[in-house]
Amino acid sequence: MNPEVAGIVPKLSPKVRLRWDNVRNRPMLLYPEGVLLLNLTGYRILQLCNGQRALADILAELQKEFPPSDTMKRDVLEFLERLRQKRFILWEEGEQAEKAESP
């Protein structure tokens, strides 16, 4: 994996909420005036996007929880990139994120 990509630290945008829909019995991402229904894999990926874990750490955790896949890294990155383009998630490079959190 590209080191620049591995250091990305994704987090949910303040305008979205990750929730479980009891009526549909499935996860969803709420955003102003809309909802994005998720599958369980997408839900788990977004649970790990807490602004504390780098993408490499998220992928390592997912590889423990899901069956091996040759395309997992690419699929996760594409999923997150689509959400970033919609501004549902934000990300910073690891070093920048650490500097922003320092007093």
Automatic annotation (TrEMBL):
<dbReference type="GO" id="GO:0048038">
    <property type="term" value="F:quinone binding"/>
</dbReference>
<dbReference type="GO" id="GO:0018189">
    <property type="term" value="P:pyrroloquinoline quinone biosynthetic process"/>
</dbReference>
<comment type="pathway">
    <text>Cofactor biosynthesis; pyrroloquinoline quinone biosynthesis.</text>
</comment>
<keyword id="KW-0884">PQQ biosynthesis</keyword>
<dbReference type="Pfam" id="PF05402">
    <property type="entry name" value="PqqD"/>
</dbReference>
<protein>
    <submittedName>
        <fullName>Coenzyme PQQ synthesis protein D</fullName>
    </submittedName>
</protein>
<dbReference type="InterPro" id="IPR041881">
    <property type="entry name" value="PqqD_sf"/>
</dbReference>
<dbReference type="InterPro" id="IPR008792">
    <property type="entry name" value="PQQD"/>
</dbReference>
<comment type="subunit">
    <text>Monomer. Interacts with PqqE.</text>
</comment>
<dbReference type="InterPro" id="IPR022479">
    <property type="entry name" value="PqqD_bac"/>
</dbReference>
